[in-house]
Design brief:
about 270 residues, alpha/beta, six-stranded antiparallel beta sheet, six-stranded mixed beta sheet, 12 strands, about 25% strand
């Protein structure tokens, strides 16, 4: 979104105040998502605070990934999304919004590492080149910065021309994180980014995300309750296509307000 105010034709502003003195970067309101005639998601009025990590938890099929993908319009063409998705006060679910610019500002990392069949360097530089950056020095700087942010520069700096497909799962996932960071997003969405990784790689990904939250707002889907409790600042519990409870992670895991949430986080669900 090259100019947020130009896209905001009606001068509409909708800034949530999550708690006194703190701004919200994203929020959803009246959100309903349909697959054909089937209502897959509703009752998910949520707010996402800047420079925090929010975990989306819940059983399989509860709507977590459907909700996550709506935040950068990844459901377009697959599902019908009604309601408002606010980013910096702008409803990005409106038809006139530049979806490709939305996805630059709101990056996505998927469940399984999906590096391009290109060199490590080209994985990071590809989108930059498509956007018109061809200065080698600038590209080199962004590639290095992104790989450093994803905590993998020291491992790959001497092998940048090597195929990214030759990397281990954990390394490949961090390259995918670096690829998302290269275009300088505000928000990073992650759909179970460590589910296919071993415990050591998982711990490294978690450490990386905790470090990244000083510069980014992170929203992560996870089935791992321990991961959610140690990684996130806020947690949302989903069930049957609805956000059942949203609170600080400490409150969700120690004193949840809803019995269904208590059952899920304590392992007594189902």
């Amino acid at each position: 979104m090259k100019d947020l105010d130009l896209l905001n034709k009606n001068n509409e502003r909708f800034i949530y105040q999550f708690e006194s003195g703190s701004n919200i970067l994203m929020a959803t309101k009246n959100l309903k998502i349909y697959y054909g005639d089937t209502l897959a998601m509703q009752n998910a009025d949520l707010q996402f605070k800047k420079n925090s990590i929010t975990a989306l938890i819940g059983p399989s099929g509860s709507g977590k990934s459907t909700f996550l993908r709506s935040l950068d319009r990844m459901n377009d063409g697959v599902a019908i999304t009604k309601g408002q998705i606010y980013y910096r006060g702008i409803d990005i679910n409106r038809p006139e919004i530049d979806v490709y610019e939305v996805r630059r500002r709101i990056g996505m990392v998927f469940q399984r590492p999906n590096p391009f069949a290109k060199s490590i360097y080209e994985n990071i530089a590809f989108a930059l080149k498509r956007r018109g950056m061809h200065d080698k020095k600038k590209l080199d700087e962004v590639v290095e910065k992104s790989l450093r942010q994803a905590a993998i520069w020291d491992q790959v700096k001497d092998d940048l021309n090597k195929s990214a497909l030759s990397l281990s799962g954990g390394q490949a996932q961090r390259v995918c994180i670096a690829r998302a960071l290269a275009v300088q997003p505000d928000v990073l969405l992650l759909d179970e980014p460590a589910s296919a990784l071993d415990p050591i790689s998982t711990a490294q990904i978690e450490e990386t995300l905790i470090d990244l939250k000083k510069d980014y707002t992170i929203i992560i889907v996870t089935h791992n309750m321990e991961q959610a409790s140690r990684l996130s600042d806020y947690t949302v519990f989903f069930n049957l296509g609805q956000a059942i409870e949203y609170n600080t992670t400490k409150e969700i895991f120690t004193t949840p307000k809803v019995k269904l949430t208590e059952n899920y986080v304590s392992g007594n669900f189902g």
